[in-house]
Amino acid sequence: MSTSGLPTIVDAMRSGMPWSGKEFASRHNHKLKGKAAERAAHQANAMLKAGVPEGIAIATANKHAKKKHHPATQKDGIRKMYTNS
């Protein structure tokens, strides 16, 4: 714990970070599956590495995991946006 009372990166590493998608989903959001869990884990791990407190990283990753992604970010969405098929 840092002098400010917030967890540090060392604390986060002790808590099992970096998480895989499966670990993140089982610990922090049971509704996440597959790629969504992997994206959330990747985002939370990156935030922790940047020094963001663990609770904020988890909450932010969960918040963004709930959002629908723009079709351009999905494999078939790009084809549909730029072709008539």
Structure commentary:
The chain has one domain (9-82). It is built from five helices and no strands. Helix 3 (34-49) packs antiparallel against helix 4 (54-66). The chain has helices at 9-14, 21-28, 34-49, 54-66, 75-82. With 85 residues, the chain is mostly helical.
Mean pLDDT: 75
Number of domains: 1
Q: List how many beta strands DSSP finds.
A: 0
Structural class: mainly alpha
Q: What is the CA–CA distance across the termini? A: 55 Å
- Helix and strand sequence: HHHHH
Unreliable stretches (pLDDT < 50, length at least 5) are: none
With helices defined by DSSP (H or I, 4 residues minimum), what is the helix count?
5
How much of the sequence lies in strands comes to under 5%
Radius of gyration: 16 Å
Major β-sheet, in short? none
Quick one: overall form?
globular
Q: What percent of the residues sit in helical stretches (DSSP H or I)?
A: 55-70%
